[in-house]
């Protein structure tokens, strides 16, 4: 068996898309994982629809997350509304700060997010531009010193060039110089970028029948604020004591400047967030705890560990609310990308909501007879971004007995269908036996019945959809009531008695 997981050396950074992503997009459409939103009208940029297979995969990812995070005695669940009081977003800093720096190409009018521009520029060009700036600032002691500082800080980073490039773009003076050395990724012209301007990513709408400024509300750009404002409601109703957490899964909306790479950056997406409230002073311990737990979660559901890493944020790139932050990154075909952020948010959020609402957000520690604002450790994962990572990670092309097969090696817990049931032929009572097995298994599992075409073809169709087990009713079944169970990855087959099938799958899918 010859694994062609990712055609090594063939991955090119061509505007962030490549062969493997193209294959996944096409398989997603063909097999009903993901469709373009409003496709018959030409699609809506940054929005996607999950088809019959996709909705199962997404639901399974969310369910596994929910179990992992809330089947504990120190985490409660919540489902807050998407629309919230507009003051929430003033208190959170989103009205003022939830902006991305944006640049335009004067020549072709393409628009880019400055802080993610590096994703569109290959290493050679990045190095050339950084070297050119280094040359230019030779006589300028202040800028040279600034550059040296950046280089020293990034030297131990897994990708020092990209990190240096990103920090330079974030620096007002170095950014201008660097931009003048770059070519527009779209039209290829050099020195055509405008200076950076700030662009607020929140979608605005109106509540009620009057469309004036007093009726403005926002589609939430994150689920976290619904948790913060409900902190005391949840704590008192569940009688939790600090440390404890609140978990929530829900839609979030961001008017992203550039949407790209399939589900990686979309305008509507789902988040799985957990905010853990701790005593100040215990924050470091809990930050480290959740950092480890969360990366392990991805690996426990089959994601390749070597394709997962932490990216700790350097101090000057921390968000305004954060004391410490790391991204859990996955190595996508277009490069490493964040799938989850872990932040030590200090007491910033509760303090701000206390200020803006005029209501106390303090926790009363009955044992210590002490009142304080807890610190918050946030774990913020994208359900849709994780979906894409799981999909890519599971995709293999293999040569089996001289034939190619595409297979989605989902962890059985994530697989959309768990079992496919086939009668070998549509006669001799095999369809009836198969239908009875289907009926029995359907009580507990998502299963699929297929009686079309040769069994080999049916196996391939299920491999491509990621179904971990196929059950075939064959001639032997007629004499001894056993069936063949074939496992997707090893392709090994074993005979199982029909009356033991449910238990067999319960065991395998546990
Ligand atoms: P990025 O820097 O990629 O824009 P972020 O740092 O703004 O992400 P967070 O605000 O920390 O992201 O959001 C937490 C998680 O939500 C991310 O790790 C990601 O999985 C998901 N997420 C954020 N923005 C998007 C988006 N536009 N499309 C899909 N998922 C997203």
Note down, in words, how this protein is organized.
With 510 residues, this protein is α+β, with helices and mostly antiparallel strands. A 7-stranded mixed beta sheet has the order 4-10-11-17-14-13-12, sandwiched between helices. The chain is globular, with a radius of gyration of 26 Å. The two termini are 28 Å apart. It binds adenosine-5'-triphosphate (ATP). Adenosine-5'-triphosphate is lined by residues 222, 254, 256, 265-266, 269, 271, 338-341, 380-382, 384-385.
In short:
The protein is 35% helix and 25% strand. The chain is α+β, with helices and mostly antiparallel strands and 510 residues long.
Bin the helical content: 25-40%
User: Rounded to an integer, what's the Rg over CA atoms?
Assistant: 26 Å
**End-to-end distance:** 28 Å
Low-confidence stretches: 1-17
Instruction: List the bound ligands.
Output: adenosine-5'-triphosphate
The chain-level mean pLDDT equals 92
Strand order of the largest sheet: 4-10-11-17-14-13-12
| SS content category | alpha+beta
What shape does the CA trace take?
globular
Q: Kindly estimate the percentage of residues that lie in beta strands according to DSSP.
A: 15-25%
- State the helix count: 17
DSSP E strands, number: 24
Q: Sheet bearing the most strands, described?
A: 7 strands, mixed
